[in-house]
Design a protein that fits this description.
GO molecular function, one term: RNA binding
Structural class: mainly beta
Keywords: Nucleus, Repeat, Ribosome biogenesis, rRNA processing, Transcription, WD repeat
Pfam family, one: Beta-prop_WDR75_1st
Helix content: 10-25%
Subcellular location: Nucleus, Nucleolus
Radius of gyration: 37 Å
Strand content: 35-45%
Number of strands: 51
GO biological process, one term: positive regulation of rRNA processing
Strand order of the largest sheet: 6-7-8-9-11
Largest sheet: 5 strands, mixed
Length: 783
């Protein structure tokens, strides 16, 4: 019996990766960056996420390597703590608590027993410092906070400080200029030189390890490398995607790292050659498509870069790929009306994708309906058909008909618009006479309206036989085979905001939510109102594989969740105060393996996971597991072999090992039991950090014993062979024993009976003696 656990709201992705400057490990194999309340460890060679450091209760504001132990990491957070980690093993070593107003201080981190330590010894360096970490910089040498020459400058601009052959401070300004300040020590009159390339604000600066070059970045998405502080000697790496927020350099100077405003991390070689890219959830300026699930990959699909669709993987917290829908260059200029992506829908199997893009320039409106077909060879969507101006006004809703249970092969798409019409588009397959080429054509099969009201929503029933279209305060139901109007439902006051059909055992119900705070359920068989509730629903999302429907309400700046079945007016689950932000969209994602749920109250989470997006574009979900059980295998144990790059030699070695394992399958069966027993000891030896291992003389006997093969258990063939050998030997022994006893009886002498008895031979000696007696010695008679 699994114990019941409370339902918790957890952040599952979308946290900004550019919240603070990232750092490389000492060997430049790993990249450590902040992500909301977490610290993430990425492989610099493979881009894979190898560990997540969880433990902070607030936004992580910075990470730094421990200068005395390069395998340890310090992280600071708005929860008032500084945590010391062993990032290779994900072990939280110590917590330093801090509770004071924001100011620049020097804190002494004492080495005391216990994990929680209160930081009491500190000295104030400067008050009124800007909260941005870019407004504070430290020299490469260690300075006393009270001594003259403390390497901190509150310039209220972006700057960085370097100490190499000369003292120099670089500052970036809002007009795109970079100034290099010198001679500011020892009461000398300072001087500065100016570098200028950026046309807008310089967002970050970073010196190289040698101090001979300076890296700068801004809104141009171009990394600029200035050599020897000269305005004439500079190199560029353009088209990095979005504005550069932070720049980092590895300790050996071989790698650079840029953090971008679109939640992207770019790893660059020191020769300004692109190496790797890690793309998180892009926070679009305005999510108009909502949260849509790709049936093929189970990825979340929503607005990404301007004019693009991003396919976001929930398991790895990374973007799978981005699809360019608009296929136009986006101009970075305020006030321009540019083409925007507003609607998206997938077919049931995910082979077809429909998108709507619009560009509004008073008094004209440009609309484009595009159909994309998934290409198996390229594993991407390709544009198939484009329809210009499918409606005379904005398109408000769009959906495909599920064709799983239908006999015909036609694909139907329905669009609803503010022009008071809904249109039915039929996609047919056209084959040439020779049957070599297949083409698809789209035609408008039906146009419907209702009392000249604006069409606001549309959806199909589970079997595709009925279509529901809402016209302001009225919901109309249409037969999808003849497009006849069957019935209408109305529950004034208020316009219909959402509408959806029930599924499985609740397929006879139709659910609607109004903008005046009513949630209604109608019975399609009796054409009557089944029940209604006074609830201000801002999100209504049905589960595609169960009868459950999730409704999110917003009242008094508080979001609440209500999960119900249409045939039961009482909610199954009520969760209040979900988050501080308003929830914009939600989506059910089917699970690969059903979850084990201990409480009947949360059984609706067994087969599907509910995700929702807030107005700050934070992606949240629900969990019944405690935080320690939610850790993945990769975050519990650092698998070094998974983070290594795939080379031809590794592939060849892997193939050789696979063949060897196939050839030695019999030996594997014999060794398996012993290997499984001793595997924990071997794993502990191989994966424990070297600085905490016992001496080699102590570990060597344990490791050698774990490799020995036990002889206690024998296979059936070995046992059968031994039984046959024993039976043959027993027969030989019985015959020889008879001969020996007869000979002994003939050769017994009285003196032997009276004297001492001679010692008996061992079994081995007796067997050897019997072999000698059986030998043929007739050849001796020839002499």
């Amino acid at each position: 019996m699994v114990a019941a656990a409370a339902l918790r709201v957890v952040c599952c992705g979308g946290s900004p990766l550019h919240g603070a400057r990232a750092v490389f490990s000492a060997d430049a194999r790993y990249l450590l960056c902040t992500s909301g309340d977490f610290v993430k460890v990425y492989s610099a060679a493979t881009e894979e996420l190898v560990r997540v450091l969880r433990g902070h209760g607030g936004l992580v504001t910075g990470v730094r390597l421990n200068p005395h132990n390069r395998l340890q990491l310090y992280s600071s957070s708005l929860d008032g703590s500084i945590k010391l980690w062993d990032f290779t093993d994900g072990i939280l070593i110590k917590i330093f608590l801090w509770s004071d107003a924001f100011q620049l201080v020097s804190v002494k981190l004492t080495k005391t027993a216990g994990q929680d330590v209160e930081a009491k010894e500190f000295s104030v360096v400067l008050e009124g410092v800007d909260a941005s970490p870019k407004c504070t910089a430290f020299g490469r040498e260690v300075y006393s906070p009270l001594a003259e020459g403390w390497g901190v400058l509150g310039y209220s601009k972006v700057f960085f400080f370097v100490k190499k052959h000369e003292d120099c401070i670089a500052t970036g300004h809002g007009d795109g200029k970079i100034r290099l300040w010198r001679n500011f020590y020892h009461n000398k009159e300072y001087v500065f030189s100016t570098l200028h390339w950026h046309h807008d604000r310089v967002m970050d600066l970073c010196f190289s390890i040698e101090g001979t070059s300076l890296l700068s970045g801004g809104v141009e998405a171009v990394l600029v490398q200035w050599h020897s502080g000269s305005d004439c000697k500079k190199d560029f790496l353009p088209r990095l995607g979005s504005a550069i927020e932070y720049i980092s350099v590895s300790s050996d100077g071989t790698l650079y790292c840029t953090l971008h405003t679109d939640n992207r991390i770019t790893i660059i070689n020191s020769n300004l050659r692109f190496s790797k890219s890690i793309q998180g959830l892009i926070k679009a300026r305005d999510v108009k498509t909502g949260l849509v699930v790709d049936p093929r990959t189970k990825a979340l699909v929503l607005n990404g870069e301007p004019g693009h669709l991003q396919f976001y993987c929930l398991q790895s917290d990374k973007q799978l790929y981005s699809l360019d829908i608009v296929q136009q260059e986006y101009i970075q200029q305020a006030g321009l009306n540019q083409t925007d992506l507003v609607k998206v829908a997938f077919s049931a199997q995910g082979k077809w994708l429909a998108t709507v893009e619009e560009r509004e320039e008073e008094p004209d409106l440009e609309l484009h309906l595009k159909l994309w077909f998934f290409d198996e060879e390229t594993q991407s969507f390709k544009l198939n058909t484009q329809v210009s101006m499918p409606h005379d006004d904005h398109i408000t809703a769009m959906c495909f008909r599920d064709m799983d249970e239908l006999e015909d092969d036609s694909l139907i798409l329905v669009t609803a618009g503010k022009d008071c019409l809904f249109k039915v588009w039929v996609i047919l397959e056209d084959t040439d006479p020779e049957g070599k080429h297949v083409a698809w054509s789209i035609t408008c099969d039906f146009v419907g309206s209702y009392h000249n009201y604006q069409a606001t929503n549309c959806c199909f029933s589970e079997d595709g036989s009925l279509l529901a279209v809402s016209f302001e305060e009225t919901v109309t139901v249409w037969d999808s085979s003849t497009w006849d109007l069957k019935c209408t439902f109305c529950h004034p006051p208020g316009k219909i905001r959402y509408v959806c059909f029930g599924r499985l055992t609740c397929s006879k119900y139709l659910i609607g939510a109004t903008d005046h705070g009513f949630l209604c359920c109608w019975n399609l068989l009796s054409c009557a109102l089944e029940w209604s509730a006074h609830l201000n629903v801002v999100v209504l999302q049905p589960d595609p594989i169960s009868e459950h429907i999730a409704a999110v309400s917003w009242l008094s700046k508080e979001s609440s969740l209500f999960v119900f079945k249409p045939n039961e007016p009482r909610p199954i689950c009520i969760q209040r105060n979900l988050c501080k932000e308003k929830i914009q969209f939600a989506a059910f994602v089917p699970r690969d393996v059903p979850e084990t749920i201990g409480s009947e109250k949360y059984l609706w989470l067994r087969r599907s996971q509910l995700y929702f997006l807030t107005d700050t574009q934070e992606l949240m979900t629900f969990s019944t597991k405690p935080p320690e059980e939610r850790l993945t295998v990769s975050s519990k144990q650092l698998a070094v072999e998974e983070s290594l790059p795939v080379t031809p030699f590794s592939l060849l070695l892997g193939k050789h090992r696979h063949q060897q394992s196939q050839g030695d399958i019999d030996l594997t069966k014999v060794v398996r039991n012993r290997h499984e027993q001793d595997s924990p000891a071997v794993k502990e030896l191989l994966h424990t950090p070297a600085h905490v291992l016992p001496s080699a003389s102590f570990l060597c006997p344990i490791f050698i014993n774990s490799l020995l093969i036990s002889k206690e258990k024998k296979s059936a063939e070995e046992v059968a062979d031994e039984v046959e050998m024993e039976s043959e030997e027993a027969e030989e022994d019985s015959d020889e024993e008879k001969d020996i006893t007869e000979m002994e009886q003939e050769n017994i002498k009285p003196m032997d009976l009276l004297g001492e008895i001679t010692c008996k031979l061992s079994k081995a000696e007796e067997k050897e003696l019997r072999k000698v007696r059986k030998m043929d010695y007739s050849w001796i008679s020839a002499f």
